[in-house]
């Protein structure tokens, strides 16, 4: 699977969306990366790809004036997707995000952000403070996602 190409102008642009580094993390089965808070960056954009296992990527857009403002998206990513359904997700600046492993096996996530790691740009906001909710009005939580996935 290709991870990042310079001719993918929707996720890579020389100056606007440069390549800075790539790293990976492995997360245990059914675990969320931060159980009760979102990640958010003021300056950095993330590019997520799942190399092994499966995750649910949650995105909450609280940006004023954004065409997707107020939207919660849950994106399944990983090896259980068809070969032609593997994809890279570009997470814009100021979009709250997090992920949870969806299954009984660990998952490995690769990220190729637009900036080198800077802890001062690694924001965290509590779910309750952000106010993201499902279409039914229920507040977002990883516990609710687990309920949905496990039926």
Task: Give your account of this protein's structure.
The protein is mainly β and 151 residues long. The chain has a single domain, classed as Jelly Rolls. Helices cover 9% and strands 33% of the residues. The chain contains 2 helices and 9 strands; from the N terminus they run βββββββββαα. A 4-stranded antiparallel β-sheet has the order 1-8-3-6, with no helix packed on it. It has a 3-stranded antiparallel β-sheet with strand order 5-4-7, with no helix packed on it. Strands 2-9 form a two-stranded antiparallel ribbon. The termini are far apart. The relative contact order is 0.28.
CATH superfamily caption: Jelly Rolls
- Relative strand content: 25-35%
Biggest sheet statistics: 4 strands, antiparallel
Overall shape = globular
Helix content: under 10%
- Output the CATH topology: Jelly Rolls
Mean pLDDT equals 92
Explain the layout of strands and helices.
Layout (H helix, E strand, L loop, with lengths): L22 E5 L9 E4 L5 E7 L1 E8 L9 E8 L10 E3 L4 E6 L5 E5 L11 E4 H4 L11 H9 L1
Antiparallel strand pairs: 1-8, 2-9, 3-6, 3-8, 4-5, 4-7
Give the gist of this structure.
With 151 residues, this protein is mainly beta. The chain has helices spanning 127-130, 142-150; strands at residues 23-27, 37-40, 46-52, 54-61, 71-78, 89-91, 96-101, 107-111, 123-126.
Labels describing this entry:
single chain; 151 residues; mainly beta; Jelly Rolls; 4-stranded antiparallel sheet; 3-stranded antiparallel sheet; 2 helices; 33% strand
